[in-house]
Amino acid sequence: MQNFDLIVIGAGAAGMFAAGTAAEHGARVLLLEKMNRPGRKLILTGMGRCNITNSEPIENYYNRYGKNGRWLRQAIQGFTPTQTIKFFNHLGVETIEESNGQIFPKSQKAREVVDVLVNYNLNNRVTIRNDVEVKNLLIRDGAIEGLSCKVIARDTFKFESIFATKVIVATGGKSYPGTGSTGDGYRWAKKAGHTLTPIFPALVPLETKEQIPVEVIKLEMPDVKVCLWIDDKKVEEGRGEIEFTRTGLSGRIILKMSKQCVLALHVKSRVEITLDLVPDLGMKELDVKLLQCLNEYGKKRMFNILRELIPERLIGYCLEINEIDPDKLGHQLTADERKRLRLWLKEVRFIIKGHRSYIKALVTSGGIQLKEIHPKTMESKLVKGLYFAGEVLDVDGDKGGYNLQAAFSTGRMAGLACSG
Ligand SMILES: Cc1cc2nc3c(=O)[nH]c(=O)nc-3n(C[C@H](O)[C@H](O)[C@H](O)COP(=O)(O)OP(=O)(O)OC[C@H]3O[C@@H](n4cnc5c(N)ncnc54)[C@H](O)[C@@H]3O)c2cc1C
């Protein structure tokens, strides 16, 4: 069998970057993927459009990864968001910038990104083998020797050992397990002596105690002020897009807050989310606006009047919760009802009782403890020749292209380190 300098496990964002980089710099590389083709998760990213990175200035970038952003500094500086854009442009992917600095391929097709990465590997003579599920790492005397794997061929399979003195584990986290990311790398890392920080789903929709009415499900509101309360203390607030789901709340701003919610729920704290549905109006201004509407449209039904303030699909829910008859006319609304309405519009409160599972989480938080990994090369400090890249590490970022950038940067650094 052919000899390889390096084996990369997992043909996702980090693995394809790592393998292509090492091969481009002269290494003989084998890339193993357990699914029947590379990039199964990548193709789903950005709702099939792939938000490859974010143009935010690099000084602010690290804050997007919470407390572990500092560790990521060397990797991101080693392969910056600007370099990511140039990399893809150079390979023929034209990019465009959308709101909040998010960068997408101009074609709006994640498939283009996957194809380009696969070709980047093939053109640099990486051997890609699909349908190969790595089972274990082979480690002796504190150094990597290779791995054992299950090779699937048509309706049968066989076991194989493959040897190399360098192995990059880029098996991703546990989210969206149907794409192949089932947390295998965590198990091997633990067996190799690494510490795992607890893992849990992040960027994940939240489940509310309150039932979401059918007509409100899938309603998206682009600009809502959201506050997160833990044990009656406001811990985070932000403004942005939310979405009502069958089981609760989602949308960019909710996903961003979900990590804190998940942690708080795990320690049995009381978690609440409040929504300010009219964030541009202060309480007084809202009252003035309400009075104006009631005067102007006094003979109209409350249902119609509220169209001035909130999406139509939300009006029935709003009136029901505030016990206001939808057929009531504007001039019939009492001062008390107006007050209830005003308070509700500024602060709709939801008790968060849970979160969706890994099946619906965009990323996995937690993973291989970073102090056991060299931040420049991604090499394990415990096992010589063993490297980790991507989401398998204890790195997760905000929504907006930050997670793929982390996968690309750590993949690049590991690939470079393994090419010498
Ligand atoms: C629906 C969705 C949308 C997203 N959208 C965005 C976005 O637009 N922008 C953004 O920045 N981030 C996005 N993310 C997050 C981003 O996709 C991940 O953070 C990123 O893909 C992680 O890259 P990775 O290479 O570490 O892992 P993955 O992309 O998960 O790749 C891991 C690979 O390893 C393979 N593998 C696992 N175990 C084995 C094994 N035992 N043997 C062989 N192969 C194995 C898997 O099959 C998989 O192909 C999204 C995530 C999801 C789920």
Structure description:
There is one protein chain. The chain is an alpha+beta fold. The chain folds into two domains: 6-200 and 362-417, 3-Layer(bba) Sandwich (FAD/NAD(P)-binding domain); 205-356, no CATH class. Helix content is 32%, strand content 26%. A six-stranded antiparallel β-barrel has the order 12-15-14-13-16-17. Strand 13 (220-230) and strand 14 (233-244) form a beta hairpin. The longest helix is centred in the C-terminal third of the chain and has 16 residues, at 402-417. The chain starts with 5 loop residues before the first strand and ends with a helix. The mean pLDDT is 95. The site of flavin-adenine dinucleotide (FAD) has 38 residues, from helix 1, helix 2, strand 7 and helix 13.
Short structural description:
This protein is of the alpha+beta class and 420 residues long. The protein is built from 13 helices and 19 strands.
